[in-house]
Write a structure and sequence with these properties.
The complex is a heterodimer of chains A (about 325) and B (about 650). Chain A has about 325 residues and is mostly helical. Helices cover about 75% and strands about 0% of the residues of chain A. Chain A is built from twelve helices and two strands. Chain A has a two-stranded antiparallel ribbon with strand order 1-2. In chain A, strand 1 and strand 2 form a beta hairpin. In chain A, helix 9 crosses helix 10. The radius of gyration of chain A is 24 Å and the shape is globular. Chain A starts with a helix and ends in a 6-residue tail after the last helix. Chain B has a domain of about 210 residues: MetI-like (MetI-like fold, Orthogonal Bundle), CATH 1.10.3720.10. Chain B has an eight-stranded mixed beta sheet, sandwiched between helices. In chain B, strands 1, 2, 3, 5 and 6 form a five-stranded mixed beta sheet that branches. Classes of the chains: A mainly alpha (about 325), B alpha/beta (about 650).
Chain lengths: ~325, ~650
């Protein structure tokens, strides 16, 4: 087990390396001169040249990458020009908010998705299955940013049950109940699509597993149907669903961009949108690398979990 | 054959596929998919004719009439904050969103499929490099990569399109590669290569047509997302820039006025929803039609007990069989009378078991012999209602187990018998043991399903069961998982599981077929010993007369769902009366007769959804004439417990 985790950790290194290469290559697609873009078209040639040298733009692409990478490894993600503060400080400040939101959503969509999928499969073609299948279809088709707006209007503006936006109340907030009240709408909205995807996959996997010979064996042993479904079938189906929950972590982390914008959640997603609009490239680079790296880590976690459940997965 | 549905399907193969409706009919039959298609077609048509509709200019501002509510005169959907007509903007915006979504989808499909086909066709290093690259791209959270691309290229509709297309390329590349690998070395591709066609021609004329369905499925499942995600980027202000507007940017503008003018965000958002929903409905329908696994309800969940519907039973037509229990000489523990099991697949009815009667006496071993598809496994599974249903149904007959009809019992009563008084041993223990539980755990479950004992006591019993079936180091082995054991060991576990509650009857469905010859002999010896030691009765299903001769007291030979010959092992082996039995016996190679032809039986058994009127074996029989084909043949008593379903049975001199 420890060997497996260690091996996977080592294998993560080239993936992370590849991530930084891709981010760097995408950023080098930027048309025109970034220094000119930052300083504006009235800048003097001397100032442009100075900024180019400061930003390392006068060096070759490979050495630019190398400088960026080694600085990053030392915790130096550069300085955000629009915020005039170190990129890493800004990211660290906002990363917690995104983790709280995305983590809650992921827990929600895992529980609800598995539950819906199992109920749907067990009641296949019954009214419960038909209803759930339709609800799930709505869930994966609805634009989450629109759903968020409509929920906000209904539950916060009209019914006044929940706070409109933000993470904490401005006056007198800051405790856990306050956070939870602010978390309800964004986390549900963010979880909707992933719930649908997990539910669909769980349903089809349960149906697939229930046709397997070992389920017939379980029945031939005289086990009652509850045990057959919730112990034998569910465990086998879960093994196939876990990697997809890992993938959904990516959709949740990405979808957070919309939801944070809609609900004014002070996370990395909203930071990225602002940074793109102000063309604060270093901030974008840093944010993307950090979020992508946490996604890779989460997938590692999912793999380890799968390994724990399935003895066939090779160590 | 372990899967009865598959058995029935195999039997169906000789028939033409005429019964299968066309893809479009299937799609039309799916009401939700049809609904999706109609909505989508409606939206697309309106989007196409928008320029010719009598609409006001979507960009014409009218500050005097700003923020009008829907259903106002002249502005059906109201106006926005600049007084622009919302209906006109909605239709023009839908045009843009559709065009962008479909273009992104085509872009991703073309590049992704190209990468996938090249990677799958050439394999080796090309494959390796391309797929590592694809993996790398997939290591990013989906939207994040699109954001990074937009960040580099700058906000704008075209850039959003590129970004969304690029992040979708991996889905196509991986799916298409998978399919291409599967066909890259098939005969027709090799043939094309040998005929001197170049790589490009092979890719375009041989590979591409075959992967097209997968490309279509992938497109139908991704185009909805792409519309959603491009709208999302526009919503964030990173896609369409004013005055250009798509549904996403309309929603983004409307958001700022959500409390004062709800219609500005509700309507464009609702339109995105409607569009994506209709695409997903249609996409699911297309996938169901093109994915062969989903055809004919093969994915239906089997019920815990086979469906029993004896209402439509008719007796054996116009023939009366001889008394099936002829001279078992013993008090029967199991007695099967006129058992009929059918599979309904689409419009076809497969009569897998068509009126089977036999009995098993106490401490007796009865063999049920026949080719794959003869109905012997389905017969065995029917006894305790283990035939997968749907599609299987028991439509007639009785199974008397110690004087009670199993088919009249409640589910809980049947469950008490399963693994209790009657237990199964299945063919392939790798697929019939649960891969994720240790064998000890699975044995404990079997014990505890019928006895109120603690886990610890049950574990001790499990270990002793493993010892009983001669598994070395049973204490350690109990902790192993099925995949860690050899085939023979696994079958011993299967037998141990059957023995867990000291059953009176063991139903063994080809328990030695998946094993090699020496292991087979060991397992047979083990079963024989257990039978003599515990006095258990055995119903032994096999296709191998060699196995029959070693273990069975009596034999029933099955063909096309019926018993065609029955008798003591000695009678049947030494004086087979049915030509089919004779052929089956001749299939067994004999030691010391190396030169003898092992005669395969020419031809195939008839499809059980299309049985002939007369003898089912007539087409493959060299003794058959017109009387054989005229009508149903009865099981005829030859005396001394020997019976045969043949009009021209072979005498002793022929055998």
């Amino acid at each position: 087990m420890h060997v497996y985790i260690l091996r996977r950790l080592v294998l993560m290194v080239p993936v992370l390396f590849g991530l930084t290469v891709i981010v760097f290559l995408i950023m080098s697609l930027i048309p025109g001169d970034p220094a000119l873009a930052i300083l504006g078209s009235y800048a003097t040639p001397e100032n442009v040249a100075k900024l180019r040298a400061d930003l390392g733009l006068d060096k070759s692409l490979i050495s630019q990458y190398w400088i960026w990478l080694t600085h990053m490894l030392h915790g130096d993600f550069g300085r955000s020009y629009s915020l005039n503060r170190p990129v890493l400080d800004e990211i660290l400040e906002r990363f917690g908010a995104t983790l709280i939101l995305a983590g809650t959503s992921l827990v929600l969509c895992t529980i609800l998705g598995l539950l819906t999928g199992v109920v749907s499969a067990v009641r296949q073609y019954g009214w419960a299955d038909k209803t759930l299948t339709f609800v799930v279809l709505i869930g994966i088709s609805v634009p989450s940013f629109w759903l968020g707006l409509m929920m906000m209007l209904l539950f916060a503006v009209n019914l006044r049950w929940l706070p409109v936006s933000g993470m904490y109340a401005i006056y007198g907030g800051g405790d856990l109940p306050d956070l939870l009240r602010h978390l309800v709408m964004p986390s549900i909205t963010l979880a909707v699509v992933a719930t649908g995807v997990i539910a669909r996959l769980t349903r089809s996997n349960m149906l697939e597993v229930l046709r397997q010979d070992y389920i017939r064996t379980a029945r031939a042993k005289g086990l009652d149907e509850r045990r057959v479904i919730y112990r034998h079938a569910f465990k086998a189906a879960l093994v196939n669903v876990i990697p997809v929950i890992g993938v959904q972590a990516g959709f949740v982390l990405g979808g957070a961009v919309y939801i944070e914008t809609v609900f004014q959640w002070p996370g990395i997603g909203r930071m990225l949108v602002t940074a793109i609009a102000t063309r604060d490239i270093l901030l974008v680079q840093g944010g993307v690398v950090i979020v992508a790296a946490s996604y890779v880590l989460f997938n590692l976690f999912a793999d380890v979990l799968q390994h724990l459940i399935d003895p066939r997965v090779k160590a | 054959m372990s899967n009865p549905a598959a058995t029935a399907k195999m039997a169906a193969k000789p028939r033409k596929s005429s019964a299968r409706p066309s893809a479009f009919k299937l799609l039309a039959r799916n009401h939700l998919a049809l609904l999706g298609a109609v909505i989508l077609a409606g939206v697309i048509i309106v989007a196409l004719i928008t320029p010719w509709l009598p609409l006001t200019d979507p960009d014409a501002t009218d500050p005097a009439n700003r923020l009008l509510r829907p259903l106002t005169d002249g502005h059906f959907l109201g106006t926005d904050h600049l007084g622009r007509d919302l209906l006109s903007r909605l239709l023009w915006g839908t045009r843009v969103s559709l065009a962008v979504g479909i273009s992104a989808s085509l872009f991703a499909a073309v590049f992704g499929s190209a990468i996938g086909i090249i990677s799958g066709y050439f394999g080796g290093r090309t494959d390796n490099v391309l797929m590592r690259g694809i993996d790398m791209v997939m290591a990013f959270p989906y939207i994040l990569l699109a954001l990074a691309i937009v960040a580099a290229l700058g906000p704008g509709l075209m850039n959003a399109l590129y970004a969304i297309a690029v992040v979708n390329i991996p889905f196509f590349a991986r799916n298409i590669r998978g399919v291409t690998v599967g066909i890259a070395h098939r005969e027709f591709v090799d043939a094309a290569r040998l005929s001197g066609k170049g790589h490009i021609r092979i890719l375009l004329s041989e590979i591409l047509p075959n992967v097209m369905p997968v490309i279509v499925i992938t497109m139908s499942t991704t185009v909805g997302w792409m519309i959603l995600e491009t709208a999302g980027l526009s919503f964030l202000g990173l896609g369409a820039q004013p005055p250009q507007a798509d549904l996403g940017s309309m929603l983004g503008e409307g958001r700022k006025l959500i409390t004062t003018a709800l219609h500005l965000s509700a309507i464009p958002g609702g339109m995105i929803f409607l569009l994506v929903m209709s695409i997903n409905l249609l996409g699911d329908g297309i996938r169901d039609v093109l994915d062969p696994r989903l055809k004919s309800g093969a994915l239906a969940r089997p019920a815990p007990v086979t469906r029993i519907d004896r209402s439509k039973t008719m007796t054996n037509g116009n023939v009366t069989d001889a008394n099936p229990n002829i001279n078992s000489g013993r008090d029967p523990i199991l007695s099967v009378e006129d058992l009929r099991t059918e599979f309904v697949l689409g419009d076809d009815v497969y009569k897998a078991v068509g009126g089977v009667s036999f009995s098993v006496g106490r401490n007796e071993c009865v063999g049920l012999v026949g080719e794959s598809g003869s109905g012997k496994s389905v017969t065995a599974l029917s006894l305790l209602g283990l035939v997968a249903s749907p599609p299987g149904t028991i439509v007639g007959g009785r199974v008397m187990l110690e004087g009670r009809d199993v088919f009249d019992m409640r589910e809980s009563e049947i469950r008490a018998i399963r693994g209790g008084r009657a237990a199964y041993v299945f063919q392939d223990p790798l697929s019939t043991l649960h891969p994720l539980f240790s064998v000890g755990d699975q044995l404990v479950e079997a014990i505890r399903a019928h006895n109120r004992v603690s886990y610890k006591d049950a574990w001790a019993k499990a270990v002793s069961l493993l010892r009983m079936v001669r598994i070395p180091n049973p204490e350690q082995r109990a902790d192993s998982y099925p995949h860690q054991l050899s085939g023979g060991m696994r079958q011993r576990v299967g037998i141990a599981m059957a023995l867990a509650n000291e059953p009176e009857l063991i139903i063994a469905d080809e328990p030695t077929t998946a094993l090699d010859v020496t292991v087979q002999a060991q397992i047979l010896k083990l079963m024989n010993n257990l039978r003599t030691e515990h006095g258990t009765s055995v119903l032994f299903i096999t296709h191998d007369f060699g196995v029959v001769s070693e273990i069975c007291d009596r034999v029933a030979v099955m063909y096309a769902g019926q018993i065609v010959e029955m008798g003591t092992t000695q009678q049947v082996l030494q004086q087979p009366a049915h030509p089919y039995t004779k052929r089956l016996i001749d299939c067994v190679p004999r030691l010391g007769e190396a030169k003898r032809d092992v005669a395969a039986i020419p031809g195939l058994p008839p499809a059980v959804n299309n049985l002939p009127a007369g003898c089912a074996f007539a087409e493959r029989c060299d003794r058959a004439d017109d009387t054989c084909r005229a009508g149903a043949v009865a099981l005829d008593d030859l005396g001394a417990g020997h019976a045969v379903r043949c009009l021209k049975p072979m005498g002793g001199e022929d055998a």
